[in-house]
Write a structure and sequence with these properties.
single chain; mainly alpha; 8 helices; 0% strand
């Protein structure tokens, strides 16, 4: 089915952005906040600033909003629980494992609006409204400033929430 980008932006994207704004800055669980604080660029070297904290949190809450709005979004990213479990079994704390996985996946996310079949577009593999919606939400929250790399900060927070969902699905606890 063909989707008109302008219609998506005017309806779904606007509604998601409004609901994210209502939840920010939010109060995620301590381990989640720790993972968000680790950021997309953890090396702390000059020229490698911490991620836009607001965008990472917005990404986290974007996934929360998706699960509230879309039945299809209530399933976790396939395979993420096993990846997360493997990291934790190797001795990583949950926040470290989630940050590493989210960082790896977000750093490969295409900056442009990608096609569903793009190998690195995790935004299309997470159940829900689709990578095009997530791309437009990230761009709108970044202020359409032309700083396309900010999409990855958004995706980092989004993927931290996906890790939290994977934990819940895997253990039933939902708490890192």
């Amino acid at each position: 089915m063909s989707v008109r980008s302008e219609l998506v932006k005017e309806t779904i994207v606007q509604r998601i952005c409004e609901r994210i704004a209502a939840q920010l800055p939010g109060d995620p669980p301590a381990a989640v906040a720790g993972a968000l604080d680790q950021g997309l660029r953890p090396d702390g070297q000059p020229g490698s600033p911490a991620p836009a904290a607001t965008l990472a949190r917005a990404g986290y809450y974007a996934r929360v909003v998706e699960t509230e709005l879309f039945d299809a979004a209530r399933s976790p990213l396939p395979g993420l629980a096993a990846d997360l479990r493997a990291h934790v079994q190797q001795g990583s704390a949950w926040a470290d494992a989630a940050a590493e996985l989210a960082r790896e996946l977000a750093s490969r996310e295409p900056l442009e609006r990608s096609d569903p079949g793009h190998a690195d577009a995790v935004s299309w593999r997470v159940p829900g409204p689709g990578g095009h919606v997530r791309h437009y939400v990230a761009r709108r929250l970044a202020g359409n400033s032309g700083a396309a790399a900010l999409k990855r900060d958004f995706m980092y927070g989004f993927l931290i929430r996906c890790c939290e969902e994977a934990l819940k699905a895997d253990s039933g606890s939902g708490r890192p």
